[in-house]
Amino acid sequence: MLEPEYYVRIVATEFRIIYEGRQEWSIMAGIWDISSEGLFLAMDFKWDDSDGGSDSIVDQGEPRLHWNKVILNILEANDFDAIPLVSEPKGRPSRIARRRYHDGDLEDLFVLGIEEVDLFESTDSIIDVVFSVLSNEHHIALVGREGKIEAIVTLHTLASPGSKAPFLKSFLDQKVADVAELTGEELHADLGRRAFEGIRNLASLVDSDRTKVSDRDFTQGAIDVLTLLQPLKEHSNTAFDLGSIAPKGSRRVVVGDIVASDFMKPFMVGVRQDESQKVTEDARDGLSQANDFSNILCLSPEGNPEGMFRLFEGSWELDEVGLNHPGQGIEPVLRQLSKMEGRVDHPVIVLGKRDGGFGIIAREEASSDVPAFWMLKRLAVVENRCRDWLISQGVEEVRFRHWDEEDMVPIQKASFGQILHHDAVFRKALRGRGNLNSLLSFRNELVHKVVAETSLVDLSGIGRTLSSIERLNRIIPS
Questions:
Q1: I want to staple 258 with a disulfide (CB 3.0 to 4.6 A). Which of 330, 353, 355, 419 is the partner?
Q2: Cα 293–297–303 angle (5° rounding)?
Q3: Within its chain, how far is the Cα of 201 from the centroid?
Q4: How far apart are CA 279 and CA 49, in angstroms?
């Protein structure tokens, strides 16, 4: 659950900010807490149905085996149990590829139809999804809204093996308490924890040498967990599920020191260096085509980042990649991203996560609520400092238009632009009228377009604006 946070409403009147009061609420436990971080897709196998091709499975066996290696490369590089397959870029999945679970799977890769798994709405209950994943022979469920598939649930997403505080563990603890209170039934306090450990054990088997995992033992493990959870099955929605939710349309702004992990995209996909360079390249191309990605990590066989594939002017380049820390402060991260603008087509910062895997910050993440409101707060603070400095100099009114000395406005009602244009000391600090106008233009774009979600932030403008704020702060006594 999130700590109480501030929610802010931006009112675009003379570029000023109105702060609505502090609201405290908890987010309802939902399916998103046990599902994948977004939906990653792979390109399905394409049969050669040209005049020179063949409908024979035997004749097309070699390209099919190569495709299997490509999909396995993606699954293993990203530690996925399964990945939905599409026949066209960003299309609707029609099949799912999953890894071998046990010796009952005859191949390392198993492909199933999408109709073989349950599709849940985002408002359905967590416990129903857990039962579906455990009882389905493929141990997969899909999550969507209004018929659109948006996430996948697997044993791995339920178990969260890299997390020290997995959501499902705390959810099952609370669920057991809710059901016991609701029904009066005496349930073992550790029921939820034993069930969760059973799920983690199943997930760990998927990551082991699966040819040595017994189909019987794997299936029995799933049955044991289902048996443990049986008292919860008829209680889809209890107090924990129905917690109060955020007011619709509220925006999230983190209180306190903001770090990269507060606004990064929590998962970045990669491909693994294979003995066959073509397998690596086809895995990269397939991920790019299916998801419209321009940056894809290149990982060693051990899973360490060796470089970044970047799509530049229609061709791929392999660049060096440095890992940032997710606890790095927001300002150096935004400055670093700003400096990359113009040097690469799609600037991106990669972060190594504490629980394994990699996060990403690109232009989209820099345009999200957390950095946008952080920038607006920085601008609001420096505006007030400039206003207070003018007041300390005895200024009561400033020009309404900087070229008109007769039409004046009280200093307390003046906009940031009117304040900066009033005294040449600000223009000098900013090194010219051009930088002054650039600062005001960036703030205007931030309020009217970025916050309004009609445009992404200008990355180079972030760097210029932060430098301008720094220069203004230097000339104003604390």
A1: 330
A2: 140
A3: 27
A4: 22
User: Mean pLDDT across the stretch 450-469?
Assistant: 96
Mean pLDDT across the stretch 389-406?
85
By three-state DSSP, how is residue 306 classified? strand
**CATH at 287:** 3.10.580.10
Whole-number average pLDDT of the chain: 85
Residues 163 and 119 in one domain: yes
Same domain as 153, residue 223: yes
pLDDT score of 397 more than 80:
yes
Bridge partners of 141, per DSSP, are 118, 153
Token reading at 189: 């306090």
Chain centroid to Cα 243, Å, comes to 24
For residues 124 and 211, membership in a common domain is answered with: yes
One domain, residues 89 and 223 = yes
How many other C-beta atoms can be found within 10 angstroms of the C-beta atom of residue 65? 11
The structure tokens listed for 433 are 């009228």
3-state class (DSSP) for residue 347? coil
Which residue do the tokens 């026949």 mark? 87
Q: Output the CA torsion sign for 271, 273, 274, 279.
A: positive
Whether 15 is covered by a domain: the verdict is: no
The answer to whether the pTM exceeds 0.85 is: no
List the 358-362 sheet strands across, edge first.
Answer: 323-324, 348-352, 358-362
Is residue 87, in this structure, part of any structural domain at all?
yes
